[in-house]
Amino acid sequence: MKKSNQKSQPPASKNENHYDENSGSLKTSTRVKIVEAASIVFSNFPYYAASIRMIGKEAQIDHPLINYYFPTKAGLFQEVLRVTIEEYYQANVQWFDGLAALGPEKGFSLYIDRFIDFALKHPKPMRIIALNLVQAKQSDIIPGYQLLQQFFLDAMQTFIKAVPVKGTHIDIQMMTTNFNTMAINYLGAGDYYAGILGLEPQNPEYLKWVKESLTYIILPWLKQLL
Amino acid sequence: MKKSNQKSQPPASKNENHYDENSGSLKTSTRVKIVEAASIVFSNFPYYAASIRMIGKEAQIDHPLINYYFPTKAGLFQEVLRVTIEEYYQANVQWFDGLAALGPEKGFSLYIDRFIDFALKHPKPMRIIALNLVQAKQSDIIPGYQLLQQFFLDAMQTFIKAVPVKGTHIDIQMMTTNFNTMAINYLGAGDYYAGILGLEPQNPEYLKWVKESLTYIILPWLKQLL
DNA sequence: AAGTGAATTTAACGATCGTAAAAAAATCTT
DNA sequence: AAGATTTTTTTACGATCGTTAAATTCACTT
To answer: Of residues B7 and A76, which shows the higher confidence score?
Structure first.
C-alpha cells in the first residue's frame, strides 16, 4: 500500500555528472552542485547560522530546489558531513605512507607537513569539523553529530593500523585525541588562533608555529609509545 | 543641544542590589537578573543560536524589557563576555598563589586541580568562551570578539607575572596558548570531548583524563622554561 | 507532435528573530 | 495627593528562517 501523498522521488545518488552535448563538456548534476555549495557554506558558518538560502545562492539555484533533492536541512548537512569526513579519512590514511622507515622525528615531521599541506589545499573539511564540534548544549545537538565523534575514533584506528605501537589503548587514545583536538583547532579555525598570535592563518610563520606546537606536544609522547 | 528622539536612559551600572522593605531581603536589580540569565543562555548556546526571548524566559521577565536595559543583543553579549572574562581572570590569578615554592611537578599539579575545581563550580565562563571562540567566517565575527582574543593575552601575562621564567616571549606564548586551547576545549566543551571518550563530563575519570593530558603536554615544556 | 514524468521556478505559509513604539503600571518628587 | 519620571507590559513591525504546494518548464518516450 502506497502512501497517498508522496512526491516524485529525486535521484538519491545517481551519476554525479553527465555529458552535455550542447556545451560538449561534463555538466555537474544539480545534486552535486548543491552538496558542493553546501560544503562551502557549512565551512564558513556553523549549522544553525548557515541557511538554505545561502546555499541556494552559492549554487546559483532557487533555494526550494534544494528541498527537492534534500527534503530537510539536517539531511543535507549530514550528507556534507559524511562526504567531508570521508574525504579527510582517505587523505589521512595516505599521510602515513612510507613513514615507518623514517623513525619518529622525521616521520612525524613529514606527517605534519602532509597534514598542513592538505589543510591548505582543502580547507573545508577541517573548518566544517571545527565549526560544528562545539555548538550547543547536549540536548539539542547538531544533526549527524555521531559522525563527528566517529571522526576521532577513525583517526585513532588509522594511526594504530599505520604505526606499530606498544602503548596501552588508553595511552594511544589520549595521544591521538590530543593531537586531533589541536590540529582541528589550529588548522580548522586558523582565523581565530592566528588572530590571537597577531598573524594571518596562511602566513608561513603561523604554519610553522602550528607545526612546532604539535611537535613539542606530541613527539615526546609518540617516542614513548613506539 | 539634546537629541529630540531620545528615550529615558536606563541605569548603566547603578547599585546591583537594593533593600526591599516588603520582603526584608536583598532584591537583585532587573539589570543584574538579565545579565545572569544571559550568561546562562550564552553558556548553553553560541551567540547566533541564543535568543533574546530565551534570556527573557530565563530571567522571568518579558523579553522587550531586555531592550530597555540593553538596546542591542550585541551589547548584552559584550557585557556578559566582559563580566565572564573578568571573573575567569580574577580566579586565574589566585590559582598561582603559593605555587612557586612547590617546584614544577607539584606546582603544576595543584594549579590544574584548582583550575578543574573552578571549572566544575563555575562552568559558565569556560563554556561561553568555548562556544563562541570558533563561530563564523572572519568577515562577520561575534560581537566583542576582541575580548576573546584578549583573554589569551591576559592569561599569558598572568602566567609571566606569577611564574619567573627564562624562555623567550615566543616560547612562553606558545606554551600558554597551547595550554589554554586545550583547557578551554576540554573543560569548556566537556560534553563533546567526554563524549568522544565515552564518558560523562563530570565523571572523575574524565577529569583525570584531562589532567593527565594537560600534564603530559605542558609539564615538560614548563620545566624547560623554568 | 502529443503525452508523460522529472526538474525547476514561483509563491506563500507559519514560526522565530531583534527591535521599536505605545500603553500601562510602578516609583519617586514635590 | 498630584505630577513627573522610571520601569514594565503589550502589541506589533519587518526580516529571515525551513518547508510546502502549485505552476511552469524541460527532457524524453511513443
So the answer is: A76
Size of interface A-B (CB pairs under 8 A): 100
- The whole-angstrom distance between A13's CA and the closest CA on chain B is 30
- Using CB atoms, which residue from B46, B185, B213 is nearest to A135? B46
pLDDT at B185 over 50: yes
Average pLDDT over residues A107-123: 97
- Name the residue in chain B with its Cα closest to that of A152: B196
Average pLDDT for B151-161:
94
Minimal Cα distance from A134: which residue of B?
B131
Q: Which residues of B touch A173 (CB under 8 A)?
A: 197
A160: closest CA among A81, A222, A90?
A222
Q: Residue A18: its pLDDT value, please? A: 52
Q: What is the pLDDT of residue A160?
A: 94
Half-sphere exposure of A146 (CA within 13 A, CB side): 0
Interface test with B, best of A172, A217, A224 (most B CBs within 10 A): A217
Using H for helix, E for strand and C for coil, what is the string for chain B? CCCCCCCCCCCCCCCCEEEECCCCEEEECHHHHHHHHHHHHHCCCCCCCCCHHHHHHHHCCCCHHHHHHCCCHHHHHHHHHHHHHHHHHHHHHHHCCCCHHHHHHHHHHHHHHHHHHHHHHCHHHHHHHHHHHCCCCCCCCCCCHHHHHHHHHHHHHHHHHHCCCCCCHHHHHHHHHHHHHHHHHHHHCHHHHHHHCCCCCCCHHHHHHHHHHHHHHHHHHHHHHC
Q: What is the arithmetic mean of pLDDT over A209-214?
A: 97
Chain-centre distance for alpha carbon A124: 6
At A192, the pLDDT band (50, 70, 90 cuts) reads confident
pLDDT average, residue stretch B5-13: 53
DSSP code, position A101: G
pTM here is 0.90
